[in-house]
Write the structure tokens for this entry.
Amino acid sequence: MCQRAAALESAIVFPDFIFTQILEARHVPGTIAVEPELFLRLLDNVCREIARNGLKKIVIVNAHGGNDSLIHFFAQMQLASPRDYVVYVAEPFDSGEEDAAIKAQWQTTVDGHAGESETSEILAIRPDLVHADQLPTDGEGLPLDRLKALRDLGVTTGIWWYADHPTHYRGDGRPASAEKGQQVLDAYAHALARVVRAIKHDQEARRLQDEFFAKGQQH
């Protein structure tokens, strides 16, 4: 998605940052879960090095739902000490017309890991990785709702994902197609390109950040 967006709006795409938050999958053989403190230090270190090389606007594009809370906390961490760069968390959304067209193509109502949308995207870019004959047919992708009573009251715990999806499969990948995947990827790329364009023109975030740090040093 980043490469597609960069083809529309020029940008330097950093190699995939693969050491991310995945504690919810430690029960699955083969999972390598880096300690939270180490992950945050590593990401901060990488951002500082990117900035040292002259790139003062760093855009984080998340590819993993398990990072959602963490990357927003990381963005807030940027206020802990002065720095000469700005970290942006990009979560672009499609325009109303594009979004409606994408939603209209889905046949499933529960979607997520290896569900209709993700399987469609992989069929569009790496069809060799999709083994349709292994897709479950027994409803494995439906949430188990083992903590539904709490979640309905607005209560969240770290075990919420495991409670619903212990095998990490969510949805039903059987209706997936490469055509659906191409439509999603293209729409997201255009949305991300618009975000990159706006960030390029932004001067206010850095100005406000510098002002914030200057006021903090006056105490």
